[in-house]
């Protein structure tokens, strides 16, 4: 048996082994996640994107490993550009509208709601995310269809005229709510709104009460405080939220099939290209689009100083 | 009169944060609100700034009823404990914020911001951001940001609390000098009695939402009215008839400062025998705890340097003048 002191020393040297080797500690800590990230996320993504530079032989319908920029060039063809613009415009509209709705909700949650009310609102925001996305999307097709709930309510309120006026607006409207861009926009906003509320709420939570006091103390009216202090300091939250709403809309291919007018979204196009046609390179080229749009967006947001307060 | 509180109460549910406080702050004076945490001093400051509204009572600022005036309509400015600088703005924009929201033209603003930054010796950091400055510098920026609006009253909420001792002492001097130079009323909240004593013209001592005493630093220290004030302003021996049943009669209670007691001397009309039980060496001063035969203790602070080594456990005599004992008002129980 080892004497007690020798035993203690042995234990100390084992725990000290890590203490004295910070690199080893870091490796043990980050090794597994790093490998996971590289193997599961980064490598496949790069591999996928690199395929957008392969050639697709229209004649044999096979992928040839030959470098070409044809797929990228193809993205700008009128038909494809149309898809990109349609998707991006919807993503933009959804993000802006979500931010406008989310801000007051998040503000109320953080600044005014009592403890219980706050918990209730939290759950209310998160609860819809627990149900299946497909079920929710399908329910909306019923809600928005003619003879559906939305029509009943609008009719009961005597607003059918207003609805028809909206549906007559080109590129927003359509024959019915469920086949209009307006309907599609409503469904997208409904589904992605929590992803906007939560980051804005987190940003507002970080905003120290004393900054608002200071602003008011220095003579700023409530709107000036909002404009010069609250809003700029919440921009990182708005941007985080808009990245969710924007990229989720850009990549979605279910809602465009269920609600709204005909015409593909980027997601549908990727699905068609790789599933039906087997044109992996073109599908890969389409997946580049959301990544590039988000990258450009972040670049300009950073240049505009949106993250200076972080 | 700069600020007047008339029977102001601020209750949060059952908690009486401020309980029937009346204050009169004179124009141009350095007025401190001193007390332990939770004593209501900060709530009083927030009531002056307008961040809180009283449950009852009236607040006048510069002769005008300001009880229900929102902060942005009051001619007072605040220096916050955590400075509350806007992290997304440069120092220049921080200092100019009050002028900007009041619609002062950019050109005039720049001049006044520059002057304010010069006043606190920070003209060279105008283009930096708050997180690039040290705590002491941020503190001065907060001061400049308030002063640039030329308030009638400047409210300071423990502004030196986060600074280290040396810097704090330096800033105490600078704040006092600044207040004299500008002639503005300062209302200063602190829990540090030394700070309050050295800077203030008058001090209000807070305890449990009430004011115990309002007076000049000298009066508070030399003639505390209550046991709480005597104890909070420095160290006091509380002397009542449980301590000295032979010398004190009835319900009278006195405070006696440790430095008024002499060691091994027969001067003075009160004399006791005891034993040294503890010696607290504090650098500039040394306090000696004397245990009396009835096992109660008295603190003595000799006014001179002396040989400590010979004292431990020794029987000593202590004496003082009856006139140095300050009669305290005991709350009627």
Automatic annotation (TrEMBL), chain A:
Protein's membrane topology: Multi-pass membrane protein
Superkingdom, taxonomy of origin: Bacteria
PROSITE patterns given in the database record: ABC_TM1 (PS50928)
Location within or outside the cell: Cell membrane
Lineage, opening ranks: Bacteria, Pseudomonadati, Pseudomonadota, Gammaproteobacteria, Pseudomonadales
GO term, biological process aspect, one: transmembrane transport
GO cellular component: plasma membrane
Record-given protein name: ABC transporter permease
TrEMBL record, chain B:
Higher taxonomy: Bacteria, Pseudomonadati, Pseudomonadota, Gammaproteobacteria, Pseudomonadales
Pfam families referenced in this protein's UniProt entry, alphabetically: ABC_tran (PF00005), TOBE_2 (PF08402)
SMART domains attached to this UniProt entry: AAA
Protein name: Spermidine/putrescine ABC transporter ATPase
GO biological processes: putrescine transport
Keyword 4Fe-4S (UniProt): no
GO CC terms in record: ATP-binding cassette (ABC) transporter complex
Organism: Marinobacter santoriniensis NKSG1
Top-level taxonomic group: Bacteria
Keywords: ATP-binding, Nucleotide-binding, Transport
Domain ABC transporter: 3-233
GO molecular function, one term: ATP hydrolysis activity
């Amino acid at each position: 048996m080892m004497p007690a002191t020798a035993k203690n020393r042995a234990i100390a040297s084992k725990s000290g082994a890590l203490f004295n080797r910070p690199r080893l500690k870091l490796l043990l800590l980050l090794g597994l996640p790093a490998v996971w990230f590289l193997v599961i996320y980064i490598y496949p993504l790069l591999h996928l994107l690199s395929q957008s530079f392969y050639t697709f032989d229209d004649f044999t319908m096979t992928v040839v490993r030959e470098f070409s920029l044809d797929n990228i060039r193809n993205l700008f063809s009128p038909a494809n550009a149309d898809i990109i613009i349609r998707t991006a415009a919807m993503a933009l509209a959804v993000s802006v509208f979500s931010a406008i709705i989310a801000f007051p909700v998040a503000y109320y949650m953080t600044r005014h709601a009592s403890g219980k009310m706050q918990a209730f609102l939290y759950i209310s925001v998160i609860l819809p995310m627990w149900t299946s996305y497909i079920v929710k999307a399908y329910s909306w097709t019923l809600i928005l269809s003619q003879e559906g709930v939305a029509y009943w309510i609008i009719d009961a309120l005597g607003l059918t005229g207003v609805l028809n006026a909206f549906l007559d607006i080109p590129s927003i409207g359509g024959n019915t709510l469920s086949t209009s861009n307006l309907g599609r926009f409503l469904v997208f906003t409904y589904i992605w709104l929590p992803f906007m509320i939560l980051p804005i709420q987190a940003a507002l939570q970080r905003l120290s009460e004393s900054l608002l006091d200071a602003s008011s103390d220095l003579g700023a009216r409530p709107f000036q405080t909002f404009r010069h202090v609250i809003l700029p300091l919440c921009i990182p939250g708005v941007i985080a939220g808009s990245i969710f709403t924007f990229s989720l809309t850009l990549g979605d291919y279910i809602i465009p099939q269920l609600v709204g007018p005909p015409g593909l979204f980027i997601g549908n196009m990727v699905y068609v290209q790789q599933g039906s046609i087997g044109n992996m390179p073109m599908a890969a080229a389409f997946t580049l689009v959301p990544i590039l749009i988000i990258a450009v967006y972040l670049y300009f947001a950073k240049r505009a100083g949106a993250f200076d307060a972080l | 009169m700069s600020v007047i509180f008339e029977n102001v109460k601020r209750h949060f549910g059952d908690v009486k944060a401020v309980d029937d406080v009346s204050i009169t702050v004179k124009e141009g004076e350095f007025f401190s609100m001193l007390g332990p945490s939770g004593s209501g001093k900060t709530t009083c400051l927030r009531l002056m700034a307008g961040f809180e509204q009283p449950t009852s009572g009236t607040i006048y600022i510069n002769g005008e009823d300001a009880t229900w005036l929102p902060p942005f309509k009051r001619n007072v400015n605040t220096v916050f404990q955590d400075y509350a600088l806007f992290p997304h703005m440069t120092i220049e924009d921080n200092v100019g914020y009050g002028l900007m929201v009041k619609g002062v033209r950019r050109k005039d603003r720049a001049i006044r911001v520059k002057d304010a930054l010069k006043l606190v010796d920070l003209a060279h950091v105008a283009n930096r951001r708050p997180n690039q400055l040290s705590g002491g510098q941020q503190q001065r920026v907060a001061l400049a940001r308030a002063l640039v609006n030329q308030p009638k009253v400047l409210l300071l909420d423990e502004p030196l609390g986060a600074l280290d001792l040396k810097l704090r002492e330096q800033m105490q001097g600078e704040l006092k000098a600044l207040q004299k130079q500008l002639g503005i009323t300062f209302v200063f909240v602190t829990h540090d009695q030394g700070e309050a004593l050295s800077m203030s013209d008058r001090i209000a001592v807070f305890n449990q939402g009430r004011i115990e005493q309002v007076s000049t630093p000298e009066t508070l220290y030399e003639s505390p009215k209550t046991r709480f004030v005597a104890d909070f302003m420095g160290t006091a021996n509380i002397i009542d008839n449980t301590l000295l049943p032979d010398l004190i009669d009835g319900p009278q209670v006195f405070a006696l400062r440790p430095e008024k007691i002499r060691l091994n001397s027969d001067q003075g009309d009160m004399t006791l025998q005891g034993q040294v039980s503890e010696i607290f060496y504090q650098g500039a001063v040394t306090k000696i705890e004397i245990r009396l035969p009835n096992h109660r203790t008295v603190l003595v602070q000799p006014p001179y340097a002396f040989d400590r080594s010979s004292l431990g456990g020794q029987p000593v005599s202590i004496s003082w003048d009856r006139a140095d004992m300050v009669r305290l008002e005991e709350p009627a129980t």
